[in-house]
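Work Package 4 report. The design task specified in the project plan requires that, given a folded chain encoded as structure tokens, an amino acid be chosen for each position. We show below one input record used in the internal validation round.
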């Protein structure tokens, strides 16, 4: 049985979405960071960093959410791992891009908008992040001019991994209007039935967490 460790309001949601896309049986082991469950000896034996998510799948034990999704796509297929070497390379490329280029900007923005009250937000940082995010949206738009999805004409792990990170922008009301192709692609990708199932389960947990954080 595949096990995914991490709260449904953590990056573990990325892996839960992937598992639902693949139609695999799995066990979701939620860990409460407020109770330091991710620092227990049992969990640290699985992921010594104490971070989530982590995956156990037989002999495969690994962390890093986007890497886990690449592993699941390669191992179980389900149409999310393309047949051609060139398309597979694009899946790896876009996953690395999402982690290295987009996530620092997108998460930085979400941290200001979601985790801080309006008077406490760093407006200079928000403006800087917005300026630096624009060129990244240009890159996505250029890729989507060539194909409907990032690795070709079909939805793959490339789209899932990038859309997972784009979620941070959407949750902080980033304006995608200057990039209509990006907006359409994101809506189609993030709105897939497998992800809707996870987001519906996530919503009440996220609402309770935000109420606790914001007092």
């Amino acid at each position: 049985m595949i096990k995914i460790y991490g709260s449904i309001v953590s990056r573990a949601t990325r892996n839960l979405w992937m598992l639902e896309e693949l139609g695999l049986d799995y066990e979701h082991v939620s860990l409460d960071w407020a109770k330091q469950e991710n620092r227990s000896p049992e969990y640290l034996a699985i992921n010594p960093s104490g971070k989530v998510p982590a995956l156990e799948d037989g002999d495969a034990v690994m962390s890093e959410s986007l890497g886990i999704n690449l592993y699941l796509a390669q191992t179980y297929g389900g149409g999310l791992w393309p047949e051609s070497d060139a398309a597979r390379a694009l899946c790896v490329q876009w996953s690395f891009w999402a982690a290295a280029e987009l996530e620092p900007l997108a998460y930085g923005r979400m941290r200001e908008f979601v985790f801080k009250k309006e008077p406490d937000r760093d407006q200079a940082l928000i403006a800087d992040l917005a300026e630096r995010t624009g060129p990244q949206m240009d890159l996505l738009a250029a890729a989507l001019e060539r194909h409907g999805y990032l690795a070709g004409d079909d939805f793959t792990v490339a789209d899932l991994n990038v859309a997972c990170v784009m979620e941070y922008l959407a949750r902080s009301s980033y304006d995608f209007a200057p990039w209509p192709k990006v907006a359409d692609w994101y809506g189609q990708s993030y709105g897939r039935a497998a992800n809707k199932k996870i987001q519906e389960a996530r919503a009440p947990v996220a609402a309770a967490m935000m109420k606790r954080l914001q007092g």
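The chain has eight helices and four strands. Validation will be extended to a larger panel in the next phase.
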